[in-house]
Amino acid sequence: MSESKRIIAGRYELGELIGRGGMAEVHSGIDTRLGRTVAIKLLKSDLAADSSFEIRFRQEAQASARMAHPTIVRVYDAGDEVTLDEYGVERHLPYIVMELVTGEVLRDILRQRKLTQQEAIFYATGILTALEFSHAAGVIHRDIKPANVMITQSNAVKVMDFGIARAVSDSSATLAHTNGIVGTAQYFSPEQAKGETVDSRTDLYSTGVLLYEMLTGKPPFTGETAVSVAYQHVSETAPAPSLVNPNISAAIDSVVMKALAKDKNARFQSAEEFRTALAAAVTGKAVDIFEDGAQPPTAPLQPIVDAAPTVVVPEVDPFAELLNSANEEATSPVTRVADVQENEPAEIYEDSFSMLGFDAGLEEDEKQTRVLTKPKQDKPSTGLLWGVGSGIAVLVVGLVIWLIAGGAALISFNGNTDTKITVSDVVGKTYDEAVATLTAQDLLVLKALEVSSTVPAGTVISTDPPAGEQVGAKTTITVLVSSGQELSLMPDVSGMTEQDALMAITNAKLTLGSITLGDSPTVPENMVLSTEPAANTQVTAGTVVNLVLSTGSVLVPDVVNLDKSDATAQLTSPQIGYTVETDIEVSCQEAGGTAGNVVIAQSISAGTQAQMQTIVLTLECVPN
Question: Is 143 assigned a catalytic role?
Answer without folding.
Answer: yes
